[in-house]
Amino acid sequence: MAYLETNLVSHAQKVCRLYKAAWRNLESYGGRPHIFRYKAALLRARFDANANEVDMVKAKKLLMEGQAELWKTQHWHPYKFPNSPGGIAYGREEFYPDWILDTWHPYEKAEYPDYFAKRDQRKKEHIERWEKKYGKIKLDEGDH
User: Fold this and answer.
1) Which of 44, 60, 64, 82 could pair with 89 as two cysteines, CB 3.0-4.6 Å apart?
2) 45: which residues sit within 8 A by CB, 6+ positions away?
């Protein structure tokens, strides 16, 4: 349901998003840097030519034409930043839960004494807050 707009986007924001998308599209085509910069300057000149348009009907028409042109000229394999969604490295960061640190050997913990002293203090404070809010857990004899 990403196509449903749930918030209002101003015309200026839409134009800025179109400009950025067009710029990224130019980047995807790559090529030599001086040619890219020339095409980017032409792109900026096209946007600046209509920057002071006061007729909103004409401005909306220009925006829709720009979006249609971007759609027609989009690159077949657009560049994506590695850590962005769709990028090659997206989602590669592993998540290690906090309890893993409890399994460390004391010799390993001794390498980071300040960190583990502060961590143990915060764990005690967290347990006290939890017990104050919810009470102590009473285990039956059959529980582990």
Assistant:
1) 82
2) none
The total of other beta-carbon atoms located within 10 Å of residue 50's CB is 13
Tens digits of per-residue pLDDT, 81-101? 898 888 888 888 888 898 999
Are 74 and 23 in contact, with CB atoms under 8 Å apart? no
Distance of alpha carbon 138 from alpha carbon 70, whole angstroms: 64
Give residue 98's pLDDT. Answer: 87
The whole-angstrom separation of Cα 73 and Cα 22 is: 9
User: pTM score > 0.70 for this model?
Assistant: no
Encode pLDDT of 54-88 as tens digits.
999 999 999 999 999 999 999 999 988 898 888 88
Nearest to 46 by CA among 66, 74, 70, 31: 66
Q: Name the token pair of 24.
A: 């990224």
